[in-house]
Amino acid sequence: MYKYDQYDQAMVDARVAEFRDQVRRRVEGRITEDQFKPLRLQNGLYLQLHAYMLRVAVPYGTLSSAQMHALADIADKYDRGYGHFTTRQNIQYNWIKLEDTPDILADLAKVEMHAIQTSGNCIRNISSDHYAGATADELIDPRPYAELLRQWSSFHPEFLALPRKFKICVIASEADRAAMKLHDIGIRIVKNDSGEIGAAFYVGGGMGRTPMIAPCINPFVPLDQLVTYCEACLRVYNRYGRRDNKYKARIKILVHELGAAEYTRQVEEEFAHLLTQDIEPPLAELERISTYFASPAFETGLSDDIDRSDPDFALWVDTNTVPHKAPGYVSAVISLKPAGGIPGDASAEQMHLIADLTKQYSFDECRVTHTQNIVLPHVKKADLHALWTSLEAAGLGAANLDRIGDIIACPGLDYCSLANARSIPVAQKISERLSPRSAELGELKVKISGCINACGHHHAGHIGVLGVDKKGVENYQLLLGGSEADDTSLGKITGPGFDEAGIVDAVEKATEVYLAQRTDGERFLDTYRRIGINPFKEALYG
Amino acid sequence: MKIVTGNDLKTGAVTWWTGSDWSIHVDDAVDAGDQAETIAAREEAARNVNSPYVIEAVTDADGKVRPAHIKDRIRALGPTVRPDLTLKPADPTAGNWVI
């Protein structure tokens, strides 16, 4: 894992001291809320429905045991005993007191964490593949490049007041497990015909009010020009992105309105200019960063055998573990989606346990996924039963990865001041009703948002649910056919919306159409793509 | 009726204007009538409340104050998915009130 150098630590410590002074002045009445609001947002502090909410950045989703323990301690000491892992691989606390915030940030700084740039019109936390460094299908570990971009984008003076927020994702495999094409910039590390490693740039994706899949604007940028090319993409956006209309301010609108070809032409022009300015960090810096991401010392000669005599354990192994690049190891996914539970929530006790298991079984490293689960990336197969036993005892043993119960849901109207409808109760009801049919339904990704901002990724769900406000009453639209994987697609709305009970029935009906129509081996998404939306509409609306 | 709501500056807790002070219980809210906006501005300037705003509400058959919009009813109670964290932790059905 990356370790802060003196500059990283000094920057974060200075920001804590600065914010402590800003909070003091706010409480003393020396600055108004209008003056204070942008300052608190720059430190991840929102004012939500019930209290202040603090969003803490988890760079590319990677955490050490000590960091997870620290997050649990914050939940215990300053919040109400739990945290919420988000679809941006971050964690949020829902019950924060303003005067505690500087102390929380100081506690975070002690474990090399912060909440900087988790809000506002700046470059947000860089996301990545939660199996990075563990999966056999990646070209290389993408996280050194994500870390390089984190350092480049942190406090970048030119990009702290962009037209709108900006999200970058870096992956290094053909399989997309990070919704890469639904980011403002998606970067895939690739190899060209000459065997050289570089980066393919996808620019202008996103969900929200106007969902778009990012087009590839450059299939190969040499790695020693990666930061410069990012800078060029941002510069064109910063110059021409719309600031007159918040709803048209994201880069996807600029790319769409200019056309990908014209946007690319302007980026290439800027890129050519920037190459003369020598802004690229030396490769030695990338190499320095890369040393922190060296593979752990995996044992060799391990057996691949697993004792499957316990059927519950065998089911969990089959469902929640994925192949690893090292023989005798797997990546194990800890589901934060018990049947009927709140997606992404973890108690302080659960976080402490995960931290302990991280240290004991996974080389002191875990990952937060954008699907609101936790991954232990490097677990010996021989340790799986002990790991599962501990998880089961703590309510963390749900065997439902990518199944109907593994639902993404934003906080919705239960917590979020932007939401129009509650998301969590809908997720709970779907999970309760359909989890018993999980095995029969197979891979089925349900994603629920409580408003058009799409934090719950509803556009990209095989089944998506969007909560809207219909004359003061919660109403839910059903979408079908979305995907955020390498076959990225956007879901289509089936028709008129449903009330809370009706949307659960509607999701069930959609699964019944799938079960009736599927052919051997077809996932829900495959069947939908083959038969189209009409059979589903007929079942839903008669 | 028009009632005034906001958040406590230091804790962020949801508060309601009672006519003389701020309470975390919506049932303490009073009809601020035409003075609602003036009260909100005055109280914010005095840092007695953060980001106040005026909402419509009604008094129900039991004399309880009920904000007109579901968002403010959830603010008044707490998250419907965590009854233990609401203002009525002993009542697991309290969430039905918001719907």
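Chain A touches chain B through 30 residues (CB under 8 Å).
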